[in-house]
Amino acid sequence: MGRGKFKGKPTGQRRFSSAADILAGTSAARPRSFKQKEAEYEAEREDVEEDSEEESEEESEDEADVKKKGHEALIEVDNPNRAKPKTLKARDLDASKTTELSRREREELEKQRAHERYMRLQEQGKTEQARKDLDRLALIRQQREEAAKKREEEKAARDAKKVDARK
């Protein structure tokens, strides 16, 4: 695809690594040799951590929940704009308190119920359309029965004609 009059540098656009890429070692910013060394270091570190895991279970849980970056490790900062995940427990929820549906949701439910009611009446043959369909089906059945009788009579007449012709 053409890029227009001005072209970028030969290296292309800048790529910024996300935190997940950096932790996974797939970051484009670091050379491969560094990734290999880091992987070896991580493997050694996991072996050491497994040994000390039993001793510091409580400490590791606190550190794993909130990993502080930069100056946050040194200073306690409370950002009011930062979203804090609120976990609700089952005992805190009110089972008796029902949430009111929005107008669109309520209309959608009413529409579904009306459709289900109409389909039930349709199956029972109580709607105008169902009556017309049943009348049409009865007419078609009657026509088919008449056509079948007519074919049988014609066949019987041909058979009788063949018998008369042989005699």
From TrEMBL:
Start and end residues of each Casein kinase substrate phosphoprotein PP28 domain: 79-156
InterPro entries: Casein_kinase_sb_PP28, HAP28
Compositional bias of kind Acidic residues: 43-64
Record region (Disordered): 1-167
Domain of life of the source: Eukaryota
Transmembrane segments: none
One Pfam family of this chain: PP28
Biased composition annotated in UniProt, kind: Basic and acidic residues: 65-74, 89-167
Name of the protein in its database record: Casein kinase substrate phosphoprotein PP28 domain-containing protein
